[in-house]
Amino acid sequence: MTDDLTAEATALLQDLIRNACVNDGRPESGEEIRSADLLTGYLTGGGLDIESFEPQPGRRSVLARIEGSDPTAPSLLLMGHTDVVPVNEDGWSRDPFGGDVVDGFVWGRGAVDMLNLTATMAVAFRRLADSGFRPKGTISYLAVADEEARGIWGADWLVDHELDHVKADYVITESGGFQVPTAAGPRLPVMVEEKGTYWSKLTVRGTPGHASSPYRTDNALVTAAEVVRRLAEFQAPPELSGTWQRLVAGLGLPDVLLQEEGFRETIDQLPLGLARIAYSCTHTTFAPTVVHGGTKTNVIPDRVDIEVDIRTLPGQSGEYARKLLLEAIGDLADKVEIESGDDPASRSEIDTPLWDALGRVTSRLCEGSALVPWLMTGATDNRFFRRAGSVGYGFGLFSKRLAFEDYATMFHGNDERVDQESLALSTDLWLAIAEEFVGPRSG
Length: 443
Hints:
alpha+beta, Aminopeptidase, 2 domains, five-stranded antiparallel β-sheet, 14 helices, globular
């Protein structure tokens, strides 16, 4: 049965990749309707209750549900997104939208982020429906649009406008579940916290003039270049939270990572993927990402706009992030106008029945393993559900073929791919957690 389900998951993942639901942030991009229709067709049958939501033309999300017999039992939502980020094909070894299977790996944009889980959740959900699964608690599957651009036409809209349809006591989406080898056995990170965003646009003003006479001009581009340099070099003070401390202990990382002194020197010696995670899990981060400015080669620019991706830690306010931003800019602050949007960090407790159920299931599927909580340095749709009262975790289950270093660097990167053994493990995980957490299956 597992082989059949893995073949199904592989084929469905290939189709999702080939649909190329690329979300570049414009309302008309994404076209997730292609994958929404694909999943609706795949799930139709088995007595499933299937609904669709399309707040913007083409930005369609799909919800399927198996009603529980006990309204007091906890409900569970398995949620995957169908959109992917843009790609530069020049950096890829294979067609990023080909869905090729090579040496047991499925290649393509979204293979890791997160179409692999979107596909395996659907396959497990269909198997549950076909088998006549009758749970105590309601279990739902949501394939949502627009996760890669703040969820405006996806989870954010659904929670705001259709909460009665999508709300669940517990939600599982990306990311986590990669196997980290330790002396005590494999450790499986579960995302229980995620950083907030304080995305900012910095407008640098100058004075226009003829570029043939640049001496002592007030060139906004030159000022902006210095602002970008300062942002790139700025390091906020580390915050070594309880989640970080449990992660360090669980993974058997050096104790020096639990103190400020020597922290930076230690992470500089770690593999690149782990070093990036360690830094971002413990710092408010600043990444200048987009610059627009200038009008003509022979005109001194009088305005340059800089977009900065700022990620805040749980418990940090927008006011605190702005204070750090001004500190980074320093004495150039009077030349910069700042426009920011605050989307705070979110977190869920680990002392829950779902955490315990995940621990029991994964100990069977991955011998010798144990769960460890971790902080997601990006953002997921879980934040909307947490704010609506749900406990939200990020998880899947990946094989040893997908090393953490690869997992960490393939998100939004080149040559994204996932192995079929991971597809099998994740499918088995969803089936087992349904049985363990909202079951039992009848007959």
